[in-house]
């Protein structure tokens, strides 16, 4: 039995890393199912967070007579809404990625066509670029200031 620290390192964000079999074809049905499961779980967690935020804002919405208290509450709500907006965009990206899995277009770099790699996709399931193309894109972005 693995030690507690080793056991916890085997689970990354609630999933077990994919174990490739020798000679296994890249992005086969098992691998696509593995990533679809990761993405669907991630999407579900984000949707639950959205629901919690809505309920929290409804429960906590109070008309404080003190302007400072009201401002604090509005700032808190503003930060939560900004976070939910980022998550909404992420949910859209997850949906697009799930569509790519269905269309057998997942796991290959949009720029050069090379395999992105299982470990990179587990770290960033919505990745559309291999590490080399992503690195180049980030360098170009820094140079142009966009």
From TrEMBL:
Subunit structure, interactors included: Interacts directly with the RNA polymerase.
Positions bound to Zn(2+): 109, 112, 130, 133
HAMAP family attached to this UniProt entry: DksA
Protein name, entry field: RNA polymerase-binding transcription factor DksA
Domain of life of the native organism: Bacteria
PANTHER family per UniProt: RNA POLYMERASE-BINDING TRANSCRIPTION FACTOR DKSA (PTHR33823:SF2), RNA POLYMERASE-BINDING TRANSCRIPTION FACTOR DKSA-RELATED (PTHR33823)
Protein's UniProt keywords contain GTP-binding: no
GO cellular component, one term: cytoplasm
Domain called Zinc finger DksA/TraR C4-type: residue spans: 105-137
Gene Ontology terms for molecular function: zinc ion binding
Domain DnaK suppressor protein DksA N-terminal: start-end pairs: 31-101
